Amino acid sequence: MLDVPAEEVTKAYRTVTSNYKKYAKIPGFRAGKVPESVIRRRFADGIRKDVIDGLLPERFNKAVLELGIRPVGEPRVTELTVEDGKPLHVKAIFEFIPEFSIEGYQQVTVEKPPVEVTEEEYQRELEQLRESRSTIEPVEEDRALKDGDWAQITYKGLIEGETEAAPVDHPTDKDLSAGTPVIAGEDTLVEVGGKDTMEAFNTALRGAKPGQELKAEVIYPAEYAEPKLAGKTVAYEVAVKAIKKRIVPELTDDFAKELGQYENLAELETRVREHLASRKRRSVEGETKDRLLAALIERYPFAVPESLVQQQIDTRLERGLRALAAQGMKTEQMRKLDFARLRAAQRDGSVAEVKTNILLDRISTEENISISDEELDRELQLAALQSREPVDALRTRLKTDGGLERIKEQMRREKTASVLYERLPA
Predict the structure, then answer these.
(1) Residues 6 or more apart from 148 whose CB is under 8 A from it?
(2) Are residue 88 and residue 115 in the same domain, yes or no?
(3) CATH, residue 316
(4) Could you list the residue range(s) of the whole structural domain that residue 256 is in?
(5) Mind listing the pLDDT tens digit for each residue in 95-141?
(6) How many CA atoms lie within 13 A of 169 on its CB side?
(7) Do 130 and 183 lie in a common domain?
(8) How far is CA 40 from CA 6, 18, 29, 32, in A?
(9) pTM above 0.85, yes or no
(10) Same-domain pairing of 197 and 235
(11) Residues of the chain with pLDDT > 70: what percent?
């Protein structure tokens, strides 16, 4: 609640009215000669607004400073009376970040896993690289299907309790193991004994040869991912057309050269180790920071302003909608989304993010952590490259819309989190 003495209100009205009188253009009056009574009557709303704008902001900021609190967002005015010759009275409600102690934050720790790459991890990475370059080739010898083979099949399935469906004209080649919703398919590849292949298909295909026709009854669990098949029993007729096998290339100099930028296998192995080490370091550091920040939130419980939570929910939803748009979702489809449910689902995560930001801001102040001009310049250079925008134009735009300060604020938080991470005992 704030009150301004009547004499100050009167002075403000005179000053504002005088300014209007200087520049007002009203038919029948010369510039600067319009009677004050006409000015006040003609521009009553504008004068009132200018008086309020001239009297309140500075006094509001001073009152808040005296309270020793940090407001969040714009205040919501619940009472306001302003009239020339009378005291101005205003009552406003605003949210603020509460004061709380962070004493002992240096002693909050979590386990800090090692970031060194193990030989097992390295070999697994090489194996995945080999498999990524594998090919599916025909088996020329006359033999039956066995685990590890790929069966090329034609199939037709009938869902129990439903009339027979006409085969699709152009079936997709989706793997049966993924539970394709298509009832018929041509030249589909199924891995015999594959971890994702339905067991009924594994049983039917093992020992079969090209040219054989088989039957398989698949009972899909109620929680199956494809609603059309969930909880249903499907009778399949399967014709085996060919046997194929996966050919995984050997690790040789030729293999390294085929990847494009390596002279030999030794160079490839070195680069794989470096890439794996960098990826593991980022992963371990990110996960450990998340656990550390969660521990800090648990150690220092405090209420957060609802407006900040709602802003964070907005940010998360906008990010999610951009991702959906990038995946091809149309605006008309987005309008049909249940936004109330989506907002509710984002609430807990948003509260945690707001608390994390407030804690990191407090700790960065305690630690005197700041962002140098050189650090900001590097960040802007990267952002300019990503947006394909001249860095000077980007800087100007960000200064105008307040984005530059938001970037510095986020960089400061990330730097603070890194400082806390580096201090963790190994």
Answers:
(1) 191, 192, 193, 245, 246
(2) no
(3) 1.10.4030.10
(4) 103-134+251-302
(5) 888 888 999 999 999 999 999 999 999 999 999 999 999 999 999 99
(6) 0
(7) no
(8) 18, 10, 15, 14
(9) no
(10) yes
(11) 95
Closest alpha carbon to 117 in 270, 259, 262:
270
Place of tokens 């699709």: 168
Is the domain of 150 the same as that of 229?
A: yes
Non-local CB neighbours of 346 within 8 Å, separated by 6+ positions? 313, 316, 317
**Residue for token pair 């603070």:** 416
234 and 263 co-located in one domain: no
Identity at 337, one-letter amino acid code: L
Tell me, what CATH number does 82's domain have? 3.30.70.1050
The amino acid sitting at 246 is R
Q: Measured between alpha carbons, how far is 196 from 47 in angstroms, rounded to an integer?
A: 74
Closest CA to 323 of 334, 313, 332, 312: 334
User: Is the Cβ–Cβ distance between 147 and 192 less than 8 Å?
Assistant: yes
Owner of token pair 């594959």:
194
For residues 304 and 281, give the distance between their C-alpha atoms in angstroms, rounded to a whole number. 32
As a whole number of angstroms, the distance between CA 372 and CA 92 comes to: 38
Task: Read off the pLDDT band of 168 (50, 70, 90).
Answer: very low
Beta strand 70-81 pairing with 184-191: unpaired
CA distance linking residue 206 with residue 193, whole number of Å: 8
Please say whether the beta carbons of 378 and 395 come within 8 A: no
What are 272's two structure tokens? 């794989």
Give the C-alpha separation, 263 to 132, whole Å.
20
With b for 16 or more beta-carbon neighbours within 10 A and e for fewer, the 313-336 pattern comes to: beebbeeebeeeeeeeeeeeeeee
Q: Which of these three, 218, 247, 276, is where a domain ends?
A: 247
Helix (H) / strand (E) element for 314: namely helix 306-326
Please count the structural domains in the chain: 4
pLDDT above 90 as % of the chain: 54
